[in-house]
Amino acid sequence: MNQPRVIVALDFASADAAVNFAGRVTPRMCRLKVGKELFTSAGPQLVQTLTQRGFDVFLDLKFHDIPATVAGACKAAARLGVWMINVHALGGRAMLEAARDAVSACARPPKLIAVTLLTSMAQGDMQDVGLSGDPAGAVLKLARLAQGSGLDGVVCSAQEARLLRAECGHQFCLVTPGIRPAQSGLDDQQRVMTPSAAMDAGSDYLVIGRPVTQAPDPVQALNDINQEIATRIKT
Ligand code: C5P
Fold first, then answer.
1. How many angstroms is it from 95 CA to the middle of ligand 1?
2. Interval between CA 164 and ligand 1 midpoint (Å)
3. Is the pTM of this model over 0.90?
4. 232: exposed, middle or buried (C-beta count within 10 Å: 0-12, 13-18, 19+)?
5. What is the maximum alpha-carbon separation in the chain?
6. In CATH, which of 3.20.20.70, 3.40.47.10, 3.40.30.10, 1.10.287.3510 is domain 6-230?
7. Catalytic residues
């Protein structure tokens, strides 16, 4: 069986809710994402609980600081035994290379990926912080910076996946949130894609939260998504 391509976003406020969800699924069905809210309330202990149960954990803390601080944070994250971590590409080349070096020196290096431009930022927001050009151009530039600094991939919108796949090649890992099965509501996401369309566009991993975690039957919702993308997975 192929490795799971769905990363379920555990956007729960408490460790209990997250552990409860993890108890209903298996590491063959999905990987799990722990973000800032859950990590701030539940801490490293929850991450270790999930990894000890055999789950690949994406620790989504989006580090962005001076190079030495980010390197230390990446090392600490790697020690938790997680599968994937991320940093902001806007931290610049020296920060990205420091993160790369710190992760490479670990016994079991997690995948290191970069956030390019937050998908919540539109052109006006870019101007506010002094970034010129359009969002797609900025995303491509930052993805190239991440790749040139030795990172394994980026988080991006599925709408950008085709361009980045073409520009950055097949080895570069594309992790895409903003995924909605055809019958799901949008919640607060704006530019969404179905799981199969995102895979066709070149995504390697789909980050999916509410369409699974808030579904009346989360296991069924996850199984349906895995079935939808099964024929799209290129090994
Ligand atoms: O519930 P939903 O599927 O919208 O959850 C998407 C997850 O992906 C959330 O954890 C959200 O923080 C994360 N994310 C996102 N857009 C980004 C980066 C991360 O939706 N650009």
1. 24
2. 19
3. yes
4. middle
5. 47
6. 3.20.20.70
7. 62
